[in-house]
Amino acid sequence: MEEKLKKEIVKEKYSDIATKSGVFFESPCCGPSSCCSSGNFDIMAEDYSKIEGYVPEADLSLGCGLPTEFALINDGDTVVDLGSGAGNDVFIARAITGEKGRVIGIDFTEEMIEKAKLNNKKLGYDNIEFIYGDIENLPLDINTSDVVISNCVLNLVPDKEKAFSEIYRILKPGGHFSVSDIVTTGELPESIKKVVELYAGCVSGATTKDEYIKIIEKTGFKIIKIQKERIIEIPNYIYLKYISKEELTEIKKTGLKILSINVYAEKFLPVSSGGNKKQNENKY
Predict the structure, then answer these.
(1) What is the pLDDT of residues 127-144, one digit of tens each?
(2) Which candidate, 98, 4, 116, places its Cα nearest to that of 59?
(3) How far apart are CA 245 and CA 250, in angstroms?
(4) pLDDT tens profile 162-172
(5) pLDDT tens string 93-131
(6) 3-state secondary structure the chain
(7) Using CA atoms, how far apart are residues 125 and 185, in angstroms rounded to an integer?
(8) Which of 13, 148, 187, 193 is within CB 3.0–4.6 Å of 177 for a Cys-Cys bond?
(9) Domain architecture of the chain: domains with CATH
(10) Would residue 87 be called left, alpha or beta, if left means φ above 0 and alpha means ψ between -120 and 50 degrees?
């Protein structure tokens, strides 16, 4: 699947979600109003409802973790959310960084940006901004943010090394990111990688966990840690919409697992400048 096509697929699917009240296609990233079942069937999403700053209208159940839970956001921080959707994690981050802070949501789906702006207009926050932009070429200056967060989005980016390089660029020296994402314990078979719906559904674009960590290391980050990890169980009937029973059996034999992980890492700060904030902690 060509990179340009991948981006077009993701933009089309997520535009549909934004304009059709969260109705999603049948995939692992199902929203609450999807055709997956008669009730809630949010295979990857975690419960936000009891978190301070939660805005139900901004929660389309498209995430795979709680990046703000581990993000070490401080009062007054500038936080950037990559793939901000309708604003769910932005509003949570704003509750932590407070009125003195600033939260910027970046999304390359115009409809999501409009939906997020509408949600923020109702809330009246003047230190939140939603900007249209591509994660591989962020519309922000160097050393802009204290913290970068993202929730089940980087697996959708074709050039993950470029994405993490951009995160590194916009972070201030000593700043850090905390992202939730989907990875695998082994290589996905080509039959899965080629499925359009499973790409937009956060599965077929996933790399192995080891490769994901190597990309982060290659882009210069230090103190890399897995903060949380859990297995995502995808029902057989979803797979069987796209592959044969024989192919599914072969996948099961390999023991391949799909994981939701939360990853933390820091932008290197020279020792002469005081070292990284967590330099005494063990690297994962």
Answers:
(1) 999 999 999 999 999 999
(2) 116
(3) 9
(4) 999 999 999 99
(5) 999 999 999 999 999 999 999 999 999 999 999 999 999
(6) CCHHHHHHHHHHHHHHHHHCCCCCCCCCCCCCCCCCCCCCCCCCCCCCCCCCCCCHHHCCCCCCCCHHHHCCCCCCCEEEEECCCCCHHHHHHHHHHCCCCEEEEEECCHHHHHHHHHHHHHHCCCCEEEEECECCECCCCCCCEEEEEEECCHHHCCCHHHHHHHHHHHEEEEEEEEEEEEEECCCCCHHHHCCHHHHHCCCCCCCEHHHHHHHHHHCCEEEEEEEEEEEECCCHHHHCCCCCHHHHHHHHHHCCCEEEEEEEEEECCCHHHCCCCCCCCCCC
(7) 41
(8) 148
(9) 3-270 (3.40.50.150)
(10) left
Instruction: Record the tokens describing residue 264, joined without a space.
Output: 């933390």
